[in-house]
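Objective 1b: paired records.
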Amino acid sequence: MNLREIDTISTDNLIGSAFGFAANPIVEVESAEPVTNKERDRDYLELKRRVTQAGLLDRQYFYYAWKILSVVGMVAASIAVMVLFSSTLWVQMVNAAFLALTFTNLGFLGHDSGHRQMFKKVRHNDWVLLGVGFLTGMTPSWWQDKHNTHHRAPNQIDVDGDIEVSLFAFTEEQASTMRGIGRLTVRYQAFLFYPLLMLTALSLLFGGIAYQIRKERMRYPITEPVLVVAGLASYLAVIFFFLGPWYGAAFIAVHRALGGIYMGSVFAPNHKGMPILEKEDEMDFLHQQVLTARDVQGSPIADFWYGGLNYQIEHHLFPNMPRNNLKRSQVIVRDFCTEKGIPYYETGVWQSHKEILGFLHEVSRPLRQKKA
């Protein structure tokens, strides 16, 4: 696929009918005449001008002060329940689920600060990111490195690490190269997708630890690992001190499993099942960010649940836009895409997951077909 072909991208070959629904309908938009890169660069600059003029890139200090205080309050509430009801197992299992919600919301704060959405000064955003690293045990530098690469080239093979996962395949070529346990999981990946998401939190945790051991790029090479290790030690100490070994182990298992499902189910609709690009494909920024992303229809509940990431197209176009402005920017971005003939896709929560499962099922079909 090259730049001239981008306006006729089709996802029909990606999202199958295995789960009884129509393929993603965002495609088959043809340009009347070829458009140059310079013209497309000007398009993005014009869109950015409109968004900036609307004040949507302005910092939202009161909003983020409230978000930080509320999420820290959620952490404190979980610890209080752990202390006050330490001998009641069912209460602690509910508390573990609540902490899964809390940790994912901490992750949203880390995500926003990593994109410099909160403050103008880099170090102030870094303080929040380091605090999130301490509370969750996730390595900020590793996540930032991985996530920034994803933003530069979403859904691009051999570039975007989010589509290079050992237990899943996102192209038929990836599926055909799988071996061992990976081949088995990919064969039935549409059915195993949600159970395997339970490993997401652990994958993020150990991925960061491996990054630190390799001593790769870290903005704070001493402070960061010290905070992460101290945070993990505190997490384990508090849980086992108040709950004991058996309740503590059950608490951690439920917390990490549900946290993984929550995080994975929030991240997956962003790009899974949308067009995938070859490594050598060249595409302008505006088209790549819009065509490889999917918005999920917003509501007060959805916006909270997804941490604003349901406005994925807008977030990818303007990563430093404060979370609470993404919904307002959607009207501007959607109208602009219509004006320029750029396919813009938004769907509901359930439909997005049906599309993801259909896509995963279709990609893995060759592994389920009997050889002649």
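Objective 1b, second protein:
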Amino acid sequence: MNLTFYREPDMYWGLGAYGRKKKLTAAKSALVEVRNPDNHSEDTTSEWKKSDYTMKDWLKHLQDIFDIPQIEDIWFKENSSEFDIGDIKEALGNATEFYIENTGCMIFSQMILEKFFPIESLTINTRNFRDSKIPPSLLIQNHTYLSIYKTGENVVPITLNQLLLINSKDINVESLQITSKQINEFIKLWQQGSNPRMEHLRFKYYNIEEDDVMKGIKHEVIPYNQRRLFQSTGLAEPYEIDGGFDFYSMNGVKATIEFNWDWYSFYFDMFVWFDHCVVES
């Protein structure tokens, strides 16, 4: 289902945070498009009119009709910084997932993080920060899911020390310029107690040797034909792990490393087998 509120330039400029901003004025109508992905001939489009509805009224009205208890995700894209963040917060309330692409304004991006704090699931473009450097204050937050990427370039500028700061449960970094020795060090530090909340870590990699990654780490090689299911917090479907390298922390928690690939990239995955992550087959 797709909802369109502003099809004409009926917004006005007013005084908002950090100067003049586009205000979310009362929409006169909403275009409701209901699509059937299996049969587009059944797609329907209708225009609903409520001249006295505010944006907040519209959302509540549509949520009640379609039995949507809350907004699941909010996307901030290019030019979203033209809007007043206070208006957005008031109209939309909070959500579970936030996607912050390159908004074009670093101050606005920071205001998103402040206004909607705490954020459970966050996907963010590093171009929202000066020199694309993620601040430690973001890395140490207790996200359930954190995904970091950078448009226009393959490598996300995150160091080993920054990786050790991340306090999220499920971590995805688009691509890391990291060596086999540094990954080996990360694993050994995890064994000693670093990243205690981490359940899953994934990143793309280049020029990494599996033997060098596992050097000096007591481990067991699991056959590729042995599949296990891993349920990370907040995800609807479990991960399928085929084979891998099993090892343990000093506290006796088991972890598995899996080296994956597709037609375009190589992936490093580390799974930490907390009791709630184990799916019995």
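The chain has three domains: 1-69, 70-177, 205-281. The mean pLDDT is 87.
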